[in-house]
Each structure stands twice: as structure tokens, then as C-alpha cells.
Amino acid sequence: MAPTSKEQITRPTKEPGKGPGGADGGEKAEGDSAAMAKRLDRLEHMLQEMSDRLKAIEEKLPAKK
Asked: Which residues are CB-contacts of 20 (< 8 A; sequence separation ≥ 6)?
């Protein structure tokens, strides 16, 4: 089972234009980097919001004895 999993993990990176090493042009790489940074910022913002919500819920719970 491990060889199959390894193959599935590495296969997308071998296809041209896909995966971490697949950028075929500088402009595309820059666009991908900008898009990736935007997605990362959005995810970080969502994570912070979820953390704040969880903290508020925990404060409403009765204290443990």
C-alpha cells in the first residue's frame, strides 16, 4: 500500500504546469505566487476568526470543578 500512496503523492508534481515544480513561465509563477499568498491570507483570517469564536464559546461554558 505504501508504494501506491507514494506514487499518488508524487504523480501531480511530475505533470507539467502543476504542482510545486511545474511552473513553466515566470509570469505564471508570479501569478500563482500572488494567488497562493491571497489564499494563505484568507485562510489565516478564517483561522483567527474560528479561534476567536471558540474562545467566546469556551468562556460561556461553566467552570470545571
From this structure: 13
